[in-house]
Design a protein that fits this description.
InterPro entries: ENDOU, EndoU-like, EndoU_C. The chain is α+β, with helices and mostly antiparallel strands. The chain has 14 helices and ten strands. The chain has two domains: 64 residues; 273 residues, no CATH class. The termini are far apart.
Length: 344
């Protein structure tokens, strides 16, 4: 009698192990596979929900697939990413700049009495999902080099949401398919998201432990020790936001070199620009940025550059643009020191 009861209990436990309770272990694996960004709450989702989340990345459109030519010519791939950027702001329509007068890199004075941006489509700016989430990231950083950055739970969730959102966009999906086709990464979105986190958001040492990251340098901007200059700061959205806050003083546009292929003077619908400015009273003699590109467009372009190029030239409309990628090796391996466009 007692033996029968014990047998029934063991039988029940065995059935439980074979049933849905086993989802716990699947969710546990999912959490550890994605611990770069996902919260512990996300790890408790059921296996079925996890599959649904993965399925949103299965279908691909033709424009998300790289051609044979693009796979063999990175400049063509960069052109393609700009072309398929669905969230771009069209210069002269969604966004207008006021270049005003030119200024040389070593020249003093202010050659621009007005703001750089004369018009931005605010409805579009505030309703584009990736840009809204991009805004959330901008206040997560201390610009001073030598100050260790600590990412708290809220900030990590903001990074998660941003990565999740841009991975729904055409430029990032193209980037993913490009890397898969080249055999650089596996055909797994969770692993790719982790890779994006490591490339762009993992902190590293510049003047102190974890005082910078690739994202902070390229998209947010940094200040040298003792306020001895600004570095990074290559994104038009950040420039616009800081100008609206009164932190950014535009001082004029930098003329191309004498031997430059791009000779047009900038106007209200320029796509790329080199400028001189002060940020919070600290000068940067020259920086360059693309105008109107979405965050996902630039991250897709620069991620391909991280893997495959140090300097790549391409044509866009009347512009010849060179993307410069500077990397170095640290304890994490290959790391982005800086990345920026240049009119040539």
């Amino acid at each position: 009698m007692v033996f029968d009861k014990i047998f029934d209990i063991l039988k029940s436990l065995f059935k439980s192990c074979l049933s849905g309770d086993n989802d716990y272990y699947e969710d546990d694996r999912k959490y550890y596979n994605n611990n770069y960004s996902y919260s512990q709450a996300a790890a408790s989702n059921t296996n079925n929900k996890h599959k649904k989340q993965q399925q949103q990345y299965v279908k691909t459109s033709k424009e998300e697939e790289p051609s044979s030519t693009e796979l063999h010519d990175l400049s063509k791939a960069l052109q393609k990413i700009i072309k398929i950027d669905k969230n771009k702001f069209i210069p002269g329509k969604d966004i207008k700049i006021n270049p005003q007068r030119s200024i040389r890199v070593g020249e003093s004075g202010d050659h621009a009495s007005n703001h750089l941006f004369s018009y931005v489509n605010m409805r579009k700016l505030e309703s584009t999902p990736s840009i809204k989430l991009f805004f959330d990231l901008l206040d997560n950083y201390s610009p001073e080099l030598g100050v260790t950055e600590t990412i708290n739970g809220k900030e990590k969730r903001e990074i998660n949401k941003f990565i999740d959102e841009i991975c729904k966009t055409v430029p990032i999906r193209y980037c993913f398919n490009y890397l898969v086709a080249k055999g650089q990464i596996s055909n797994d979105w969770a692993s790719f998201k982790k890779e994006l986190y490591n490339i762009w958001f993992r902190g590293y040492y510049r003047k102190a432990v974890n005082d910078t990251s690739a994202f902070e340098h390229v998209f947010v901007g940094e200040v040298k020790e003792d306020n001895d200059g600004v570095i990074g700061f290559h994104n038009w959205i950040t420039i616009y936001k800081e100008e609206q806050k009164g932190n950014f003083d535009y001082r004029g546009w930098i003329p191309p070199r004498k031997d430059a292929k791009t000779t047009e003077r900038p106007d209200q619908d320029s796509f790329a620009l080199s400028i001189k400015f002060d940020w919070k009273g600290i000068e940067k003699p020259v920086t360059s940025c693309l105008i109107g590109t979405s965050p996902e467009c630039e991250i897709a372009m620069y991620t391909l550059m991280y893997y495959y190029g140090e300097e790549v030239e391409f044509r866009h409309e009347d512009y010849t643009i060179k993307i410069n990628m500077h990397t170095f090796n640290n304890k994490y391996g290959k790391t982005i020191g800086s990345c920026y466009p240049e009119l040539i």
